[in-house]
Amino acid sequence: MNIDLKRIALLPPDLQLKILSLGSETPEDGIVQDISTRNTGSIECNAHIAAILQNLGTQGYYVIDDFLSQEVASEALQHMKAFNAREELHTAGMGAASGHWKDESIRGDKIKWLTDVDKDVMGPLSVPLGCMKSILGSLQKRIRPRSEFFTKAIQIAHYGPNGAQYSQHSDVSPLIPTRRLTFILYLRETPHVSNPSGHLRLQTLAGTSVDIEPKMNRMVIFRSHLLHQVLPSYFDRYAMTLWAHNRDTMDSRDFLQAAHVPSIFVSVPAYRDPDTNKTIVNLFDTATYPERIKIGVLYQDAEIEPWKHSEIPSKYQNYIKSLHWSNEDAKGPFIARAVILEQLYSKEDYYMQIDSHMRFAQGWDEELLHNLSRCHDPHKSILSTYPPTIIHDTLIPIPGPVLLYPTHFDSDGMLRIKGTSVTASESPRSHMFAAAGFLFSSGKLVFDLPYDKNLECLFFGEETLLSLNIWMKGWSIYSPWCASGYGTTCWHKWDRSYRRTLWQDFGNSESMMKKRSDSQQKVQDYVQQLKYQNGNHNERTLSSFEKAAGVYFEERRVVFKVSDIQLQPDAAGKITENAQ
């Protein structure tokens, strides 16, 4: 029996309900169950989720073979067969309550309703149910509808070998309007058959029909509103069905937008650092979507080191691009970052630069994106701060976001910067300085970064140059803050005793001292030039930066007081706002 929705719409409402209730029988006691949104964080799992979303948006369905291990699938099948042997399955009907009716010529399966509250009754079926809910939880995180998915009872169904079928219908009806996704796990012992037998015939979003064989251990996920039917079955066919409900309607755009996970390029300059690969692995291990992470690392090691870099798991290696220099060719972190950008960056959606000795909070990628979305203008905002320290591999929580502020000019004329923790607020806190060792923003920032390969051996001065340049280009800087957990997305090993630095190896050489001095002079010359670049492709002025930051470069004078941001929670934001 085919359903002509246009003709049904011409019938009286009570008759419409009667016909549309063909959708499926509903359990008398539907128990709403929570959906776990825990994401495994594995690249393999998330690749599946992206494919599911893409296909749900384009075709309306997705098929996963070998969904469970053979042992688990076999145990689940035997459990279903035991229900049938004990005659615990009843002839299925259509509709609910007073609208409930039966006709085996339309629907010939036998069913049983279960909830995962009935642990003893569920038995081995708890495992496939948990796997279904894990997928649904991952979909929930990607789709982010206004309300959350929920499930009711699980249906166990058996189609006998006597030609049992289910005529064309939709799982959504006026009686059951909230079904959004249908999950069906097929279990059977009969081998592959050439002619359709018990196949699921599904009308796709493209308007075509597809016949899906109910193979053993095959999972099918489809949009619940799609018309479908079960063709006559000539073998024992078992299935476990879970429906995902949502009070919000969803269209293909919701699924297609969720299928795209924006990429993040991470710049990692590393000088003789045995912690480099541990940092890289930790980046992947703690990301919600590790497949989005693209690493660009520049190793600068001695020919013979007393240690070896730790191994990077093979599953991450395709997401890493690397360059290798001798430490004798190193020219400082500023040049290293410039080279990484020039040779390894591939126009990823977001850009992050870090140091090679850091650790990250679970879900740092989603947390940073969430922080960025809450900034006044996310498309022109940067998240940057001095991360808290790691002490003996212990991750230290922070009480509030860390804002950077100027302290003084050193003997070389370089502005020195510190950080202080301040009271958290609902919106990200703004400040005037960027930290070179931790910075996150849109990939568009790359085109406004000041990295110049002529500034060799520059260390102090890099953050001044960085902060000034992005200010002049119209960017605003914010300190990230996580209300839950540790309060931070990352930590930094500030203790350098375990590794060699460029300055320890070559800092006293006449050549390096001259290069550093020349680069620092170029920074000061650049600051002087900014005085005469009002307009000239810049959105702000040097004087507005000086006023907002409380620092005057020509006089080498700092008037900013840290108490200003400690006593006034929004002081930094107000200063920035007034100066623009």
From TrEMBL:
SMART domains: P4Hc (SM00702). It catalyses: L-lysyl-[collagen] + 2-oxoglutarate + O2 = (5R)-5-hydroxy-L-lysyl-[collagen] + succinate + CO2. Keywords: Dioxygenase, Iron, Metal-binding, Oxidoreductase. Its EC number is 1.14.11.4. Gene3D superfamilies: q2cbj1_9rhob like domain, Spore Coat Polysaccharide Biosynthesis Protein SpsA, Chain A. The keyword Oxidoreductase applies. Residues 149-246 form the Fe2OG dioxygenase domain. GO terms for molecular function: iron ion binding; L-ascorbic acid binding; procollagen-lysine 5-dioxygenase activity. Its cofactor is L-ascorbate. PROSITE patterns: FE2OG_OXY. InterPro entries: Glycosyltransferase (IPR021067), Nucleotide-diphossugar_trans (IPR029044), Oxoglu/Fe-dep_dioxygenase_dom (IPR005123), Pro_4_hyd_alph (IPR006620), Pro_4_hyd_alph_FE2OG_OXY (IPR044862). This is procollagen-lysine 5-dioxygenase. It comes from Umbelopsis vinacea.
